[in-house]
Design a protein that fits this description.
Helix content: 25-40%
Distance between the termini: 35 Å
Pfam families: DeoRC (PF00455), HTH_DeoR (PF08220)
Protein name: DeoR/GlpR transcriptional regulator
Low-confidence stretches: 61-71
Shape: globular
GO molecular function, one term: DNA binding
Domain HTH deoR-type: 3-58
InterPro entries: Carb_Metab_HTH_regulators (IPR050313), DeoR-like_C (IPR014036), DeoR_HTH (IPR001034), NagB/RpiA_transferase-like (IPR037171), Tscrpt_reg_HTH_DeoR_CS (IPR018356), WH-like_DNA-bd_sf (IPR036388), WH_DNA-bd_sf (IPR036390)
Structural class: alpha/beta
Radius of gyration: 18 Å
Length: 261
């Protein structure tokens, strides 16, 4: 098992309770104690976990049971991000909306690029599960669009609803398509700045038949962060014409359908 895959599994295992023991990690990863210690050391250096006696835990600032008013998501706030590469995001959103079949149920993860789908969904009579209050507000005027939201805490930086302690808040919902964004995309996979976002997106991915990633070409950079998934877990990637030939080849080599809007 590759190191990036082990790191993703470690972060996923931490999300529900905020702690995992060395013994649990050895059983889950089928790796040696020395290998697991090296993985934990790397993740701790990136600020994604803390090594403690007997195992590892989430950093105090992102512990699942911390009060919502005291937790802030890492990364660029929504109000700032919405203005960046807006024209490309609008083009990507239009192309993504065209993939939705009339009357189907879809999941749309919160983000400034996925938000751009909303104007083009009117008249398709979709059922939409979303954790984004921005997306809810954009869809409310559409009389034929039915909206579902999970319960949880509102994170004001992104105006999204997240429940990092577990999955009980998620509606019993399965959809043919999940539309989601990412903070960065590279050979390691799709990355986010915050482990709480990783856990939330993994729960959505588990409920989808097809994962459709919406990222503008500026997101194809060499970056560090919490890995949401490998590129091989993405079915379709929609981006703009600014993607470089090398990055396009990397995406296609992973078996991903690439749509350049």
């Amino acid at each position: 098992m590759h190191a990036t895959e082990r790191e993703r599994l470690i972060l996923e295992a931490l999300a529900p309770s905020g702690f995992i023991s060395y013994r649990e990690l050895e059983a889950k990863l089928e790796a040696s104690p020395a290998t697991i210690r090296r993985d934990l050391t790397r993740l701790e250096a990136e600020g994604l976990l803390q090594r403690v006696h007997g195992g590892a835990k989430l950093p105090d600032a992102t512990a699942p049971d911390a009060p919502a008013t005291g937790v802030q998501l890492l990364g660029t706030p929504f109000d700032q991000s919405i203005t960046q590469n807006l024209a490309a995001k609008q083009t990507i959103g239009r192309a993504a909306a065209a993939l939705c079949d009339p009357g189907e149920g879809v999941m749309i993860d919160g983000g400034t690029t996925t938000l751009q789908m909303c104007p083009h969904l009117d008249g398709r009579d979709l059922q939409v599960l979303t954790n984004s209050l921005h997306i809810v507000n954009a869809l409310l005027p559409q009389k034929g669009t039915r909206i579902l939201i999970p319960s949880g805490s509102v994170f004001r930086e992104q105006n999204i609803i997240l429940a990092p302690a577990g999955e009980d808040s998620m509606p019993r919902f399965h959809a043919p398509k999940l539309f989601m964004g990412g903070a960065a995309v590279g050979p390691q996979g799709v990355m986010q700045h915050d482990i709480i976002l990783v856990a939330a997106e993994r729960r959505l991915m588990d409920r989808a038949e097809q994962v459709i990633l919406l990222v503008d070409s500026s997101k194809f950079v060499s970056s560090s962060g919490a890995i949401v998934c490998g590129l091989d877990e993405v079915d379709v990637l929609i981006t703009d014409a600014g993607i470089t030939p090398d990055m396009a080849a990397m995406v296609r080599a992973a078996g991903v359908e690439l749509i350049v809007a």
